[in-house]
Write a structure and sequence with these properties.
The protein is mainly α and about 90 residues long. About 60% of the residues lie in helices and about 0% in strands.
């Protein structure tokens, strides 16, 4: 089996991932493609390939992990009516 086939399979996973509708499915399938690309990059000695895809795996896993939502405080603005000054004299 040619190593080039491994790269083609990885490419297909990446392409198929973008056909998915949900972000979770996109990331999950993209992770599979990225893992295959890491194997491919190591096999052909291309650090740029395996480094990029290794980083993508970390990013995808991070984005898929549930994080505690930051608490936001909603403050109801107080309705303040500006004072109207009638017959104000301007000092000259």
């Amino acid at each position: 089996m040619s190593i080039e086939i491994v790269g083609i399979v990885a490419t297909l996973f990446i392409l198929v991932s973008f056909l998915m509708n949900s972000e979770r499915k996109i990331r999950m399938i993209n992770i599979v493609g990225a893992v295959i690309f890491v194997i491919y990059g190591v096999a052909i000695g291309a650090a740029s390939v395996w480094l990029l895809n290794g980083a993508l795996i970390i990013i995808h896993v991070w984005k898929l992990m549930p994080h505690k939502a930051k608490k936001t405080v909603t403050v109801n603005p107080v309705s303040v009516k500006p004072e109207v000054v009638l017959d104000a004299k301007v000092a000259s």
